[in-house]
């Protein structure tokens, strides 16, 4: 196998330094993590560009009569934070997604939280700290409007970096797996997140080294929600059948992670003795039932069998997630 040659950062030939890292998103990162990894990479780039723009802002500050300290510090932050943020938080998340390493995830969350705190301090902008944040910029409007306008640009950029870092840290990633029959009930274009179906499983796997989608999905997810769980899939899951992407993910599910299911079917199907047996079987596997409710069903019948209200489902997911993260931390 050809040895991978380091390609990052891409340095021009006349610089006597060699790239220190190998970076190839498509080759290294499993498809379900690709967009998240790229978004974090773009955030790292935005952070670096902001530090460069901050240097220009501090130059304008200097020209407008401010001290040289800010300019000197701005230069230091640029050459220090650009490689440090790459090594300290982008590389860990790249490695975490590449190798599914919980240590790298932990390292990322630790250093990325520090990055968020630094971005907030930069956006605030204490004069003398080498950053054009809000306090430094607004207070300079009274001294030199031209310099203050230039300083406003990095200030806005620091704020954007802080907001995006906060969103990245608090974001839940959702992926939807659909059955072929379920496709009759919605428009795929209305699904705002990644949507996988049976064809993806088979299109992704051509050779031995290719990703196996149902295994990658079960590794990636911290929680699985099956909503609605119809009578057909309920029967399959209870007896271990796995003949599509959804039932394969469920069959391969690591039972130390939560799996929640929301039964939904016609009242007579619900009242069939098989249903209670199969629901009990799923509960015996450790899966959590979000019970169906009594209401007028789409078919016109009135009675038990309607899927729980979305609000009930969201509340239950939040409750189970917080319990589970508590168990993992302890
Ligand atoms: C309009 C319509 C609505 C349906 N609603 C339900 C339902 O709410 N619950 C259910 O168990 N089956 C329902 N079915 C039957 C399922 O679609 C059928 O069992 C299908 O094979 C399920 O496939 P899947 O489990 O692979 O998604 C419905 C069928 C149709 C045509």
TrEMBL record:
Name under which the protein is recorded: Secretory carrier-associated membrane protein
Membrane topology: Multi-pass membrane protein
Coiled-coil features, chain-numbered ranges: none
InterPro entries for this protein: Flavin_trans-like, SCAMP
Protein keywords: Cell membrane, Cytoplasmic vesicle, Endosome, Exocytosis, Golgi apparatus, Membrane, Protein transport, Synapse, Transmembrane, Transmembrane helix, Transport
UniProt-listed Pfam families: SCAMP
GO cellular component, one term: synaptic vesicle membrane
Membrane spanning residue stretches: 41-64, 70-90, 102-125, 145-172
Any GO BP: negative regulation of endocytosis
Domain of life: Eukaryota
Biological function: Catalyzes the decarboxylation of the cysteine moiety of 4-phosphopantothenoylcysteine to form 4'-phosphopantotheine and this reaction forms part of the biosynthesis of coenzyme A.
Subcellular location: Cell membrane; Cytoplasmic vesicle, Secretory vesicle, Synaptic vesicle membrane; Golgi apparatus, trans-Golgi network membrane; Membrane
Gene Ontology terms for molecular function: catalytic activity; protein-containing complex binding
Subunit annotation: Interacts (via C-terminal part) with SYT1 and SYT2; interaction with synaptotagmins making a link with the SNARE molecules. Interacts with SLC9A7.
Family: Belongs to the SCAMP family. SCAMP5 subfamily.
